[in-house]
């Protein structure tokens, strides 16, 4: 099993097979527009612009499970990200990342790359998962890890 076995609805409402990203290095991140880490959108976008042509993609999954920090509609989220951070990487439909209604992709990600003390639950917005070109989850980054701090590991996988 790999991330390629999942599909997710884009922010525009279209089902997208993650197999479309086969052969690419991915960062999969749960996002929020009203979080102390929201400024990470800027760094994520910069990484995307620098490495996209080399086979790098970012998949952003808005989530409102952490203190209601993503209350908007998909249209509002997309507009916010484009206007404030120039986001052009793929955003997806707002999802749950924890609990019984967690998106199947996130159920898989947390099993493949548990967090601190082997806990599976996502603790906060902007938890990031790195996926290699074969679709394997290779690392989980805490919300406090900035996009810039991930750059060397992204380059190594590219």
UniProtKB/TrEMBL annotation:
Outline the extent of the Thioredoxin domain: 1-158
Keywords (alphabetical) are:
Oxidoreductase, Peroxidase
The molecular function GO annotations come to: peroxidase activity
Task: Specify whether Translocase is a keyword of the entry.
Answer: no
Active site residues per record: 35
Q: Name one GO biological process term.
A: cellular response to oxidative stress
Q: Which SUPFAM superfamilies did the record assign?
A: Thioredoxin-like
Q: What is the name attached to this protein's record?
A: Glutathione peroxidase
Spell out the family assignment given in the record's similarity comment: Belongs to the glutathione peroxidase family.
**Record's InterPro entries?**
Glutathione_peroxidase (IPR000889), GPX_AS (IPR029759), GPX_CS (IPR029760), Thioredoxin-like_sf (IPR036249), Thioredoxin_domain (IPR013766)
Q: What is the lineage of its organism?
A: Bacteria, Bacillati, Bacillota, Clostridia, Eubacteriales
Q: Which Gene3D superfamilies match?
A: Glutaredoxin (3.40.30.10)
Q: Is Translocase one of the keywords UniProt gives this record?
A: no
